[in-house]
Amino acid sequence: MIAGLDSSFAVPMAAQADAARAAGVGLWSGYLTSKSNVGIAHPWRQFDFDSARRCGGTPIAYCSGNDDPVACKALAANWSVHLCLDVERGIRGNGWWVQGWLDAAGAGLYGSAPVFIGRRAAFYIFAAYPGNDPRATWPGNEPRPSRPCGWQWQGTHAEFGASVDRGWYDDFFGPD
Questions:
Q1: 18-51: pLDDT as tens digits
Q2: Residue 145 carries which DSSP code?
Q3: How far apart are the first and last CA of the chain?
Q4: CA dist., res. 11 & res. 30, Å (int)
Q5: 60, 64, 39, 36: which is closest to 48 by C-alpha?
Q6: Of the candidates 107, 101, 117, the residue with the CA atom closest to the CA atom of residue 66
Q7: Domain with 67 in it: what CATH number?
Q8: What is the arithmetic mean of pLDDT over 122-151?
Q9: Number of domains in the chain
Q10: Each residue of 67-123: pLDDT tens digit?
Q11: Which domain holds residue 7?
Q12: 60 pairs with which residues across the strands?
């Protein structure tokens, strides 16, 4: 099980990523876009992901359902990051379009419980905030998918001089 962080505007500098790794964080993830105006507040650049990679794991690159799934897939492959479709109202809400997007991109899926019903993805990241550290990669009261999982269990807060979310992730997301 790997402790992980993700952030938007707070792209980790090398010293922040190194401090996080020294404190037991093995993954730091961000956002990717292939074009402008798709609902992502602050897309990262390739070298931002390279800095995050200093934590040890392969970063997750969250992306928008308003973006081109094929272009996002190509960019994620080029940058060696795990592509993950972020399904939430502030970006693009849950709907009929999700499975087609996942199929075209070969991406993982991020969201709350209803997002996962009947969906096939490369991996799954559950967003739910219980108020304490669950020490688990998936909520015990929800059906667990058979693919790699993660649980973003703490929303925006400050760590390592950055505004981040925190989660637990299966070893799949760790170092090769």
A1: 999 999 999 999 999 999 999 999 999 999 999 9
A2: P
A3: 14
A4: 8
A5: 60
A6: 101
A7: 3.20.20.80
A8: 98
A9: 1
A10: 999 999 999 999 999 999 999 999 999 999 999 999 999 999 999 999 999 999 999
A11: 2-173
A12: 82
